[in-house]
Design goal:
Elements (H helix, E strand, L loop, with lengths): L1 H6 L27 H10 L12 H4 L7 E3 L3 E4 L2 H12 L4 H15 L9 E7 L6 E6 L22 H5 L10 H12 L4 H14 L1 E2 L2 H9 L7 H7 L12 E2 L2 H13 L2 H4 L1 H12 L10 H5 L4 E3 L2 E5 L2 E5 L6 H13 L11 H21 L10 H4 L2 H8 L33 E7 L5 E7 L9 E2 L2 E2 L12 E2 L2 E2 L17 E4 L5 E5 L7 H14 L4 H6 L3 E3 L4 E4 L8 H6 L4 E4 L6 E6 L2 E6 L6 E4 L1
Parallel strand pairs: 19-20
Antiparallel strand pairs: 1-22, 2-10, 2-23, 3-4, 3-11, 4-7, 5-6, 8-9, 9-16, 10-11, 12-13, 14-15, 16-17, 17-21, 18-19, 21-22
Helix pairs in contact: 4-5, 5-7, 5-8, 8-11, 15-16, 15-18, 15-19
Length: about 600
């Protein structure tokens, strides 16, 4: 440190005490003048990386993809067949919602591990003419027969996750079909049956197994045990269909045909509803309580988006029961008022600040965020500028806080934290049409292949495992505990960004379970604070924290930060952080579409 003192002699602001700097560990005013950058360079050198590097194809499927420019319309989705189907609907004069319906249903066919009619979703929709922004909540709900003991074993202790995951116990009431029908009634242009037809035709004719689908099928330990899934996706010897082999799903085609003719009634009532309830209730290892009344009573909820200012822009995202929106907005506010913009992208102190902001935001997430119909969620207090000023004052440039405590807000019930992380198997797509209508839609069956329970060619979700397994902790009730009719907390974060004139500037979202908020926050922080080009921001290596270890994307150049982060007190671990960021950004008179190189997604527009 004597060497550091000599080097900082010409930068007197560095001598300001931590107390004078408001407890942040950063000298007040110095960072904007470049003094702190000098100190950080002295301490840590030029360690860092500007983007992730490809890892072996068998492990990641990394594919560098050029961005797509379009003047009229654009679809960016997780599979080329789905993106093409959505683009064809736009070409036929369909709205952004029309294209979203087709895209989602085709994804059910070709990306069964991530989403589908057996799951739930959130849609953010912008009306291009009125500029009205709406959020539609199609999240699953807990059956009436579920209660806070759902995931407790005979001794009253939380059961192992794997025991909770597989089977009917984890299945929530699916919301996707009713959600798609509801938004079509309000914002659709083309006939409903026309929008369903591409997925029906593809399910009947078949599609070639992709490398990603093959690897997921082959590595999954539980899906083979379901007889319908085994017959559809595996050979007699138990090995998954090879890359390029054709999957034909006539059962799903028949279901889609009925939905095309009868709408959501074909799903929530009658023979199909009976089959769903029978399958859930008769699972040999973990039967569930889903009933015909639960299905018939499912309702889509329209919610107001959460919008906050961010470096001259307005970021709009999801309210609860998604935790992603509040977590994202908290992180962005902290990063905007920290020296993040002054630092080089991807280097040590940038990652340190991002991870510390994530710790604070996830601590609040775990304690306060849940279904607002059941819990008094203090959203306004959690996003109050003075509250966030106090939160970011806890960040120290010199060391990690390791685990953050939730802040104290509001006068409501004293909730206990309940850490429950969703698994990274979701899909997100972004769409804009020629009249300026836009959709950001995130959809999920939760775990890869959901509950590993198939009905008539589609998989049922395991979204109830997004609830906290523990209903009470430290003598207080957990906000995200299981309750009948409740929607489990999510981290899906479909987001739109608007410029100072109120024009749509960006549509963004990602799969990734509880990492989703970090993925979206990283893109926005890199793009708007550190001025990183969009393609590089999407491809940048992931590093951050969910209020535990600082997690680094395995196989990326960010691994060079592991030891320096440990010197700052971080517990560090590497893992596969396979985001699926699908982004549309306005650049002058054109839209730019970018698909995450970590997955097989594609942008298609004109």
């Amino acid at each position: 440190m004597e060497r550091v003192a000599r080097r900082s002699a010409g930068c007197p602001a560095l001598k300001v005490s931590r107390r004078q700097a408001g407890g942040t560990g950063f000298p007040d005013g110095a960072l904007r003048k470049g003094c702190a950058v000098l100190l950080l360079q002295v301490l840590f050198g030029g360690i860092g990386a500007s983007r992730a590097q490809p890892v072996p194809e068998a492990a990641s499927g990394w594919t560098d993809k050029p961005p797509v420019s379009a003047r009229e319309q654009l679809v960016v989705a997780a599979n080329p067949l789905a993106a093409a189907a959505g683009a064809a609907i736009l070409d036929a004069g369909g709205s952004a919602i029309d294209a979203a319906i087709t895209t989602q249903l085709v994804l059910n066919v070709v990306e069964p591990q991530s989403s589908g009619i057996g799951g739930g979703a959130f849609i953010m929709h912008l009306d291009g003419r009125s500029r009205r922004l709406r959020v539609y909540d199609g999240r699953e709900t807990a059956p009436a027969g579920a209660d806070e003991r759902l995931f407790l074993d005979a001794t009253g202790q939380p059961m192992r996750f794997v025991d909770a995951l597989v089977g009917g116990r984890s299945v929530g009431v699916p919301g996707v079909v009713r959600l798609l029908e509801a938004v079509h009634r309000r914002h659709g242009r083309l006939a409903w049956s026309r929008l369903v037809a591409p997925a029906e035709q593809l399910a009947r004719a078949g599609f070639a197994v992709s490398r990603r689908l093959h690897l997921l099928l082959e590595s999954d330990r539980f899906l083979r045990a379901d007889p319908l899934a085994r017959a559809l996706y595996y050979h007699a010897d138990g090995h998954a269909l090879a890359v390029g082999e054709i999957v034909r799903n006539p059962a799903l085609a028949a279901v889609l045909h009925r939905i095309a003719r009868e709408g959501s009634r074909a799903f929530y009532e009658g023979e199909l509803a009976q089959a769903i309830v029978r399958t859930v209730g008769s699972h040999p290892k973990a039967p569930g309580s889903l009933s015909l009344t639960d299905l018939a009573g499912y309702r889509v909820i329209e919610r107001e988006p959460l919008c906050r200012a961010f470096v001259g822009h307005r970021v709009c995202t999801l309210p609860p029961p998604s935790s992603g929106g509040v977590t994202l907005l908290q992180m962005l506010d902290m990063l905007e008022h920290l020296p993040f913009a002054s630092l080089p992208p991807g280097q040590l102190m940038s990652v340190h600040l991002f991870a510390e902001a994530g710790r604070l935001a996830f601590a609040d997430r775990d304690r306060y965020l849940a279904d607002p119909a059941f819990v008094q969620v203090p959203v306004r207090a959690l996003l109050d500028p003075l509250y966030l000023e106090g939160r970011r004052a806890l960040i120290d440039a010199r060391r990690s806080m390791k685990v953050a405590l939730a802040g104290e807000v509001g006068t409501g019930p004293a909730w206990s934290s309940g850490t429950q992380f969703e698994l990274p198997s979701t899909t997100h797509f972004s769409i804009v049409d020629r009249t300026g209508n836009a959709v950001a839609m995130s959809s999920s069956i939760e775990s890869a292949f959901g509950s590993r329970t198939m009905v008539e060619g589609f998989l049922l979700n395991n979204q109830l495992t997004d609830f906290s397994f523990q209903p009470v902790r430290d003598g207080a009730r957990v906000a995200n505990r299981v309750e009948p009719g409740k929607r489990p907390r999510s981290t899906m974060t479909p987001t739109m960004v608007f410029d100072a004139r109120g024009r749509l500037e960006m549509i963004v979202g990602s799969p990734g379970g509880s990492w989703i908020a970090n993925y979206v926050a990283q893109v926005l922080a890199l793009r708007y604070l550190q001025q990183v080009p969009l393609v590089a921001a999407v491809a940048a290596p992931h590093a951050g924290s969910r209020n535990g270890a600082t997690e680094i994307e395995r196989g990326s150049t960010a691994e060079s930060l592991i030891e320096p982060l440990r010197l700052l007190g971080h517990e560090v671990r590497t893992l596969d952080l396979t985001s699926g960021l699908h982004v549309i950004e306005r650049q002058g008179a054109v839209w730019l579409g970018v698909a995450d190189p970590r997955r097989e997604g594609q942008a298609i527009g004109r």
